[in-house]
C-alpha cells in the first residue's frame, strides 16, 4: 500500500471503530489521533423493552427507522423478552421506511423489506420520498438516532398523523471538555492535517465550543485554509457547510475506509500538483 498519508496527522473525531480507522491511517503512513467528540449512551433498557412490548401489542401503520444500531437495539430488547418472532411478525405487518443503506441491511437480516428506503442518508431526502404517502389518521412510530429530530416528527404530524410514537434507543453524550480544548488548540496551532467527522453531532460540539470561547471565525478559517475537513457522508458534510466550512472531502460511499482513501487521494493530488510545478 502506498504511503500517501506519510507523516500526516489525521484526527478521528468519532467514538466507534476508532482502532479500525487508526489502522487504515497507519498503513498509509499517517499518524492517527483519536479525539472523540461524541459518544453513545444506551437509553434505559427497560424503556426500550417497554417500547418493544407496546409496539408488539398494538402495532402501527408505519414504522420509520433512522439507524441500523437503533433497530438492533430494539431487536436485542425483544431477545431479552423472548419476543423476537412476535416483534418481527408485527413489523412485517407494518409499512416500513428506513434511512440509509446500513439501516436497510439490518432490517433485511430480520426479513423486513421497507416500502421506502433512502440511500442518500439524509432526513431531508427521506421526507421527500415519504411526501407521496398519505399519513392521515395513521399511527406512526419513529426510531430516532441519538437526539430528537423535530424535522421528521413535525413532517409526519403535518401529513395528518394524529398518533406519533418516538423511540430513542440511545442518546449522544457530550465529549470531555479536556478533549475539546486539546483539539481546539491543535487546530488553531495547525498541528494536525485533517479531521475525520463521522456524525453531524461531532461538528456541532466542536463549533459550539469554539463559539463559547469566541473562536468560531478562527476555527472556520483553519478549515478553509490549512486543516482538511473530511466528512463520512452528506449529512455530516451539510453540518460543516451550515457552520460556514466549504473545503470538505466527502467519499462517494459513506464508509470510514472510503473516507481515509479520499483523504489520501486529496494529498496525493496535491503532491502531483507540486511535482508538475
From TrEMBL:
Tagged with keyword Lyase: yes
UniProt superkingdom: Bacteria
SUPFAM superfamilies (alphabetical): HemD-like (SSF69618)
Keywords: Lyase
Keyword Protein biosynthesis among UniProt keywords: no
Record Pfam families: HEM4 (PF02602)
Annotated GO MF terms: uroporphyrinogen-III synthase activity
Tetrapyrrole biosynthesis uroporphyrinogen III synthase domain residues: 20-260
EC number per UniProt: 4.2.1.75
Enzyme class (EC, first level): lyase
Alphabetized PANTHER family for the sequence: BLR5956 PROTEIN
Name of the protein this chain belongs to: Uroporphyrinogen-III synthase
Organism in which the protein naturally occurs: Paenibacillus gallinarum
Amino acid at each position: 500500500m502506498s504511503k500517501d498519508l506519510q507523516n500526516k496527522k489525521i484526527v478521528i473525531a468519532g467514538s466507534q471503530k476508532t482502532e479500525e480507522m487508526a489502522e487504515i491511517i497507519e498503513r498509509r503512513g499517517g499518524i492517527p489521533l483519536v479525539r472523540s467528540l461524541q459518544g453513545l449512551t444506551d437509553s434505559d433498557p427497560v424503556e426500550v423493552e417497554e417500547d418493544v412490548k407496546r409496539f408488539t401489542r398494538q402495532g402501527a401503520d408505519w414504522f420509520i427507522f433512522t439507524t441500523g444500531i437503533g433497530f438492533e437495539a430494539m431487536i436485542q430488547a425483544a431477545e431479552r423478552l423472548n419476543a423476537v418472532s412476535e416483534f418481527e411478525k408485527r413489523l412485517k405487518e407494518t409499512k416500513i421506511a428506513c434511512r440509509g443503506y446500513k439501516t436497510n441491511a439490518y432490517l433485511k437480516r430480520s426479513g423486513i423489506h421497507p416500502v421506502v428506503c433512502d440511500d442518500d442518508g439524509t432526513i431531508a431526502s427521506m421526507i421527500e420520498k415519504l411526501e407521496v404517502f398519505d399519513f392521515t389518521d395513521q399511527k406512526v412510530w419513529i426510531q430516532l438516532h441519538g437526539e430528537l429530530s423535530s424535522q421528521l416528527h413535525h413532517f409526519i404530524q403535518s401529513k395528518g398523523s394524529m398518533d406519533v410514537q418516538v423511540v430513542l434507543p440511545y442518546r449522544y453524550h457530550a465529549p470531555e471538555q479536556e478533549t475539546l480544548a486539546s483539539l481546539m488548540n491543535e487546530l488553531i496551532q495547525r498541528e494536525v492535517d485533517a479531521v475525520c467527522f463521522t456524525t453531524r453531532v461531532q461538528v456541532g460540539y466542536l463549533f459550539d465550543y469554539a463559539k463559547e470561547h469566541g473562536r468560531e471565525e478562527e476555527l472556520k478559517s483553519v478549515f478553509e485554509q490549512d486543516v482538511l475537513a473530511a466528512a463520512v457522508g452528506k449529512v455530516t458534510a451539510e453540518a460543516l457547510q451550515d457552520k460556514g466550512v466549504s473545503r470538505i472531502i466527502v467519499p462517494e460511499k459513506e464508509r470510514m475506509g472510503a473516507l481515509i482513501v479520499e483523504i489520501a487521494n486529496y494529498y496525493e493530488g496535491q503532491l502531483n500538483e507540486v511535482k508538475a510545478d
